């Protein structure tokens, strides 16, 4: 039994699932895939006990559509998957943004492309951040670096999803899903969002409502798309978060997200001990991306080094944020190639040593 | 005594009108559903799921809450809604392309899970909305935009028999196929749809009604010939009837 008040040792996947329960997730729909199957297994035990819904969906196409159904009623719902499973959800995610339906999607990345492997990787940054669905759309993407942060960001994912009526992806890598760390769950720290003004419940004593994604009248779709992007401007203004570690006087700023950022932080500490001025900039929200903060940090640096467990995906956002304020370089390994403290320290030493 | 010959059902929009081709089966079925919702008095407790196909604009016809689904995914959206609001009447309105071609997996699994929802599947043996290509239910020999010389089973395989298949699902409570090719068959279709609605309203289980419906435009036939085509040809391949009714089985 996982307690809610004091620190307990929990595996990342189970911590995310427990946090979802604490956040008031009423429905979980999912289809198994490594390295996140523990989430669904946990839910299959807990949801019936709590009188909530667990449905083992027939596919990821179905599971995300079930999330949409629950979301249209203003019910907190979640699905979880990995890489190729998330690929199957892209059409629905685009429709969900268009119809402004809330829902939480946990994406625990494995190595790819293709069926790839089950090793930890970060190759699905583009999939989450840029999206593989159709049309002009964005989802909110949060990237935890520790199990504790995965808990906090799961809470936040539910909150943002309900507050802004948008899908939110929690993007974790396989290391985080599988690793055990001490965690304090606490209670869901956000106020409940009132959904009564828009949720479907049957048109009783009020006008009928519809949450759909086909809008054929002239100008209708353009207006909706503009409104959705205005909403994202607001999200960017209010909700952008990042961690800046020793960036103020840094000659070299490392950019990294997720677990790679933890390793990078340790490498930065080691470099500082040796008198090399390194720093770390870690976006916590990948969408909205902390452009301005990164740009400002980069202004006083001699260079930016982006490090990812992929061939350079966040790199495009880093370059666009830095926008000439400093040269941007990249170091990465794809598809399960692990990046160690020594690797990163070596990269720093090569440039500052 | 005054006899009311025609009254527009309450849950059809006052200012709304069907935008289907002349003689299209969709209007007949959508109206029938509206009448039943009125009869059961469930307008304020109903959530409809619109599907991708000629009938996609449910919210423009009905004074009902409507959720949209991607092509083939209505039963899953319905599942999410019904699990969240078990007391509401939740139905999907789908075509043969939607429910039986791209969405057959969802149809079969939703039936097997015994979700307490109702699916009305309009089988006009083609993809109406995209201009009349072959679907899973297209008859052998039927000419469509993608079977220009008639459906050749050696080349593109055989039609799927939906009601028979869904009836095989242990979770299904009521499964029927009806047709709307004559006043008598329309009357019968409404009785059967009523039973399907009752299955959900009484909390008994999943109900599925396949409706053989006209698509004069893509069949290249007059509305009258289209009705005859259902009777003479389609019903031979996709016969009407009740394929499963657990309330009858139990009574026996
Ligand atoms: C994923 C996807 N693939 C294809 C389409 C194009 N499309 C729109 S409607 C339709 C067929 C609909 O046929 P059916 O369900 O039989 O409905 P009908 O129009 O005949 O009533 C297709 C293929 C789509 N909208 N989405
Ligand atoms: S194309 Fe066929 S199904 Fe579509 S509206 Fe016309 S007649 Fe009806
Ligand atoms: Mg059709």
List the helices and strands and how they pair.
The complex is a heterodimer of chains A (353) and B (252).
Chain A: E1 8-11, H1 12-22, E2 27-30, H2 37-49, E3 53-56, H3 60-72, E4 77-81, H4 83-87, H5 90-99, E5 103-111, E6 117-120, H6 125-129, E7 140-142, H7 147-164, E8 167-173, H8 174-178, E9 180-183, E10 210-211, H9 220-239, E11 242-245, E12 252-255, H10 259-273, E13 278-283, E14 285-287, H11 291-299, E15 303-308, H12 314-322, E16 328-332, H13 341-352
Helix pairs in contact in A: 1-2, 1-7, 10-13, 11-12
Chain B: H1 25-40, E1 46-50, H2 58-61, E2 65-68, H3 74-84, E3 89-95, H4 96-102, H5 104-113, E4 118-123, H6 153-156, H7 162-167, E5 172-179, H8 183-201, E6 206-212, H9 216-219, H10 223-237, E7 241-245, H11 246-251
Parallel strand pairs in B: 1-2, 1-3, 3-4, 4-6, 5-6
Antiparallel strand pairs in B: 5-7
The complex binds thiamine diphosphate (TPP), iron/sulfur cluster (SF4) and magnesium ion.
Keywords:
heterodimer, A: 353 residues, alpha/beta, Rossmann fold, 2 domains, eight-stranded mixed beta sheet, five-stranded mixed beta sheet, 16 strands, B: 252 residues, seven-stranded mixed beta sheet, 7 strands, 40% helix, globular, binds thiamine diphosphate, binds iron/sulfur cluster, binds magnesium ion
In brief:
Chain A is of the alpha/beta class.
């Amino acid at each position: 039994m996982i307690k809610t008040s004091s620190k307990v040792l929990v595996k990342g996947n189970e911590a995310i699932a427990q946090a979802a329960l604490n956040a008031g997730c009423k429905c979980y729909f999912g289809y198994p895939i490594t390295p996140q199957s523990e989430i669904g297994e946990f839910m299959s035990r807990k949801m019936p006990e709590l009188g909530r819904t667990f449905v083992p969906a027939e596919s990821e196409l179905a599971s995300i559509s079930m999330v949409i159904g629950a979301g249209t009623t203003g019910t907190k719902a979640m699905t979880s998957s990995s890489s190729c499973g998330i690929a199957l959800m892209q059409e629905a995610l685009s429709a969900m943004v268009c119809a402004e339906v809330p829902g939480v999607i946990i994406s625990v990345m494995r190595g790819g492309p293709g069926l790839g492997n089950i090793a930890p990787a970060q190759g699905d940054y583009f999939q989450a951040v840029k999206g593989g669905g159709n049309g002009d759309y964005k989802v909110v993407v949060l990237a935890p670096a520790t199990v504790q942060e995965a808990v906090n960001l799961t809470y936040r994912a539910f909150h943002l999803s309900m507050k802004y009526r948008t899908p939110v992806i929690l993007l974790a890598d396989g290391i985080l899903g599988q690793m055990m760390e001490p965690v304090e769950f606490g209670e869901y720290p956000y106020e409940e969002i009132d959904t009564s003004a828009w949720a479907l419940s049957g048109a009783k004593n009020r006008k009928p409502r519809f949450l759909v994604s086909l809008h054929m009248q002239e100008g209708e779709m353009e207006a909706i798309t503009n409104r959705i992007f205005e909403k994202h401007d607001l999200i960017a203004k209010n909700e952008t978060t990042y961690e800046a570690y020793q960036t103020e006087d840094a000659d070299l700023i490392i950019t990294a997200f997720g677990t790679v950022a933890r390793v990078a932080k340790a490498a930065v500490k080691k470099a500082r001990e040796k008198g090399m001025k390194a720093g770390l900039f870690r976006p916590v929200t990948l969408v909205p991306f902390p452009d301005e903060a990164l740009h400002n940090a980069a202004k006083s640096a001699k260079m930016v080094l982006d490090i990812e467990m992929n061939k350079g995906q966040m790199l495009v956002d880093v370059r666009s944020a830095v926008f000439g304020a400093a040269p941007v370089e990249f170091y990465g390994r794809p598809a399960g190639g692990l990046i160690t403290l020594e690797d990163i320290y070596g990269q720093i030493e090569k440039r500052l040593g | 005594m005054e006899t009311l010959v025609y009254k527009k059902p309450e849950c059809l929009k006052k200012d709304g009108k069907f935008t289907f081709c002349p003689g299209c089966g969709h209007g007949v079925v959508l109206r029938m559903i509206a009448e039943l919702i009125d009869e059961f008095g469930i307008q304020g407790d109903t959530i409809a799921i619109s599907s991708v196909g000629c009938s996609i604009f449910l919210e423009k016809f009905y004074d009902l809450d409507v959720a949209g689904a991607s092509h083939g995914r209505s039963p899953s959206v319905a599942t999410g809604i019904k699990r969240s609001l078990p007391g509401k009447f939740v139905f999907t309105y789908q075509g043969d392309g939607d429910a039986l071609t791209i969405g057959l997996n969802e149809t079969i699994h939703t039936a097997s899970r015994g979700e307490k929802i109702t699916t009305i599947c309009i089988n006009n043996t083609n993809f109406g909305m995209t201009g009349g290509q072959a679907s899973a239910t297209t008859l052998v020999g039927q000419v469509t935009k993608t079977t220009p010389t008639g459906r050749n089973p050696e080349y593109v395989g055989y039609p799927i028999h939906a009601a028979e298949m869904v009836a095989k699902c242990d979770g299904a409570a009521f499964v029927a196929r009806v047709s709307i090719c004559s006043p008598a068959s329309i009357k019968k279709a409404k009785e059967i749809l009523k039973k399907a609605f009752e299955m959900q309203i009484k909390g008994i289980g999943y109900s599925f009604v396949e409706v053989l419906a006209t698509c004069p435009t893509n069949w290249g036939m007059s509305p009258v010939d289209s009705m005859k085509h259902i009777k003479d040809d389609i019903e031979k391949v996709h016969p009407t009837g009740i394929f499963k009714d657990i309330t009858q089985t139990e009574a026996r």
